[in-house]
């Protein structure tokens, strides 16, 4: 499936839901322009205020609040129309695919939520406006709560399919992480949406209700924005560290990002979700940051013993560099132990088997795969050749479960990623020694240790 087909499918769902909703409730409760116009304007405002930093492809839009309120006020067809208009008017969007996807998805979410609401006996338009007391809860509040849950599920599943098409992630894994990421905060949206309906209809404030809704709307946005701001600061901090690492050794350009992408995909296969997945991504991005502190040798005159000695310090050095950054505390074990070996002959602690933190075992596989597939011309392996090489190292250097996850990724339609080696700057120093992430260097270190003398790999 391509992105264009996904957009067409969502647009079809939105049109069908809107048309069905029109036939279902439209005959008795036609949508009024005086209802749709303020809802559309508020929807556009919600999109303008949305925050994008709560995760990949995951934007939090207060337009969802307006979308929820549109269901009882304007029916499924009105909700689909408000969703469509809200994103179509997003003048800042420059990627036409993202622009159309967001518009089609939000219209589909509104339409599907509206049909759910009506199917549960929810009152629409004038019927909702005439309700009072318990009837308001049973015929508006409860159906709206369930409809909003369906809207949220539709939203994260559509985003999951989009992420699968763009990044090769698994739909359900992405959807689950998205649900965990937004948490229970979305419930505040449905409460505000219900308040909007009560003020508009039973309280007879109609369009003036928008004025009273803006206050809670901005409070909800402020609360979400604080979390988003913290996440942006964290990401900028990590990006600064990665830039410093790549500045110190231009030959490593792009390595951290490639390892993080593959580690994230491997983590999804073996069930690393939520905060653990976020810690894994941070650890994968920063796993070599200790090289900045440990790289004190001169490439022209270093011998093997000095090289291996220097290498053995960079994992611990990385943890020291990042000490004091609380948001990276859970990433520290993955950074400290990403060069341990399953057979216990790695560094820095000589941990073995499942004593090695799971994130470190995942990064070790992603690290080795990247080293093999972006090696210098002549030594570089294809993705399939690298997979065969790493399969042979399952149970000695690498965790067999993670290697199996790599095989599972290879069997998916998109297959394994084929990294594009980043060209270092023309004035960058040539690499004098092999990439320390190459499996042969891991073997050299395992044999170099005094306790390994006489032991075969």
UniProtKB/TrEMBL annotation:
SMART domains for the chain: HDc (SM00471)
Q: Does the keyword GTP-binding apply?
A: no
Report what the protein is called.
HD domain-containing protein
**SUPFAM superfamilies linked to this entry:** HD-domain/PDEase-like
Ranges in coiled-coil conformation: none
A Pfam cross-reference name? HD_5
Record keywords: Membrane, Transmembrane, Transmembrane helix
The ranges of region (Disordered) come to 413-437
Q: Looking at the keywords, is Membrane present?
A: yes
Give the residue spans that cross the bilayer.
Answer: 62-87, 99-120, 140-166, 178-201, 207-224
Here the segments flagged for biased composition (Pro residues) are: 416-427
Domain HD-GYP, first and last residues per copy: 230-422
PROSITE patterns under this entry?
A: HD_GYP
């Amino acid at each position: 499936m391509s992105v264009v087909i996904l957009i067409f499918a969502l647009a079809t769902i939105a049109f069908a839901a809107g048309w069905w909703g029109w036939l279902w409730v439209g005959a008795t409760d036609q949508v009024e322009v005086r209802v749709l116009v303020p809802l559309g304007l508020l929807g556009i405002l919600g999109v303008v205020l949305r925050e994008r930093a709560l995760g990949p492809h995951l934007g939090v839009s207060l337009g969802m609040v307006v979308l929820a309120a549109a269901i009882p006020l304007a029916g499924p067809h009105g909700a689909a129309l408000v969703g469509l208009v809200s994103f179509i008017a997003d003048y800042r969007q420059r990627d036409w695919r993202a622009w159309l996807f967001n518009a089609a998805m939000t219209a589909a979410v509104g339409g599907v939520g509206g049909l759910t609401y009506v199917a549960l006996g929810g009152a629409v338009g004038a019927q909702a406006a005439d309700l009072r007391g318990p009837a308001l809860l049973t015929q508006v509040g409860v159906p709206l709560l369930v409809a909003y849950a369906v809207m949220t599920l539709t939203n994260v599943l559509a985003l999951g399919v989009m992420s699968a098409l763009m990044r090769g992630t698994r739909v359900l894994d992405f959807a689950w992480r998205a649900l965990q990421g937004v948490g229970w905060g979305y419930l505040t949206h449905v409460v505000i949406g219900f308040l909007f309906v009560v003020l508009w209809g039973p309280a007879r404030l109609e369009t003036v209700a928008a004025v009273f809704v803006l206050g809670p709307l901005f409070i909800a946005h402020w609360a979400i924005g604080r979390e988003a701001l913290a996440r942006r600061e964290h990401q900028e901090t990590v990006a600064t560290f990665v830039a410093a690492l790549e500045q110190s050794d231009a030959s490593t350009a792009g390595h951290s990002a490639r390892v993080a992408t593959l580690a994230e995909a491997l983590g999804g296969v073996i069930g690393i979700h939520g905060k653990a997945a976020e810690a894994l991504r941070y650890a994968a991005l920063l796993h070599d940051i200790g090289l900045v502190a440990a790289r004190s040798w001169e490439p022209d005159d270093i011998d093997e013993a000095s090289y291996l000695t220097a290498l053995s310090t960079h994992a611990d050095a990385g943890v020291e560099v990042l000490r004091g950054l609380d948001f990276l505390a859970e990433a520290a074990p993955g950074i400290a132990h990403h060069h341990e070996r399953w057979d216990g002959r790695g560094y820095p602690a000589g941990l073995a088997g499942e004593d090695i933190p799971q994130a470190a075992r995942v990064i070790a596989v992603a690290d080795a795969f990247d080293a093999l597939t972006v090696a210098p011309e002549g030594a570089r392996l294809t993705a399939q050749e690298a997979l065969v090489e790493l399969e042979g190292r399952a149970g000695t250097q690498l965790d067999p479960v993670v290697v199996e996850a790599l095989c599972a990724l290879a069997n998916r339609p998109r297959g394994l990623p084929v990294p594009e080696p980043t060209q270092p700057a023309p004035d960058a120093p040539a690499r004098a020694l092999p990439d320390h992430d190459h499996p042969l260097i891991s073997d050299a270190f395992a044999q170099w240790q005094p306790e390994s003398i006489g032991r075969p790999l």
